[in-house]
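REQUEST FORM: STRUCTURE PREDICTION
Request ID: SP-0412
Submitted by: Lab K.M.
Chain count: 1
Length (residues): 220
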Amino acid sequence: MDKQKSALTISIIALIISIIALLLVLWLGYGCCSQCCKKSHECPQKEEPAAAVVVEKTEAEPAQAPMGEEVIVETVKPHEDVVVKKKGGVQYIDLGLPSGTLWANVNDANGLTTYEDAVAKFGKQLPTKKQFTELREKCEWQNLKNGGYKVVGPNGNYITFPLTGFINCTGEFLNANKFGDYWTSTTDGTDEAYRVAFNEKNIIIALHPKCYARAIRLVK
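STATUS: Completed
RESULT:
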């Protein structure tokens, strides 16, 4: 009997060991299969990030200037008056005026000048109030797109006047490209003289302090 019990016990232990071994093999096989699955095409694939789209920047085409008439008047810089650059320097234009006055096609290159300095330097070449009045009344004053006036005489010839600005009695340079201001030689005998002033809407001839520095347009 003892031998039979011992043999039965050994058989049971062997069976238990076999079951444990089988379970161990199954467990190990599942783990290994999981690792293999990750490498196989059957396992879900991790999506790769989409390649970044590289957009090549291109510089915008510069805006084309609108078609129009040729620019005649250039920007006026402080203490400097640049109007029209023509070969041969200053030209005196016959506008067909009744008085026969010839007008310079550009302002004096020295820039803005006080009344006293202008009279001393230019004398009779500085236009009078009467000559400016004739120019205003006998000519057609046309606004230029970039500021100032194109002044067309009775015979079709023309000159241009830029918006020069002025220098006041304390030395401040004001209203460039907004306001034209020109001396005449005519005075009332005090500390004032007649000047021609204009913007895009109005042209006036009036007395003003001589200590102001203004543009000079000469005549013959």
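NOTES: DSSP finds three helices and twelve strands in the chain.
Reviewed by: T.R.
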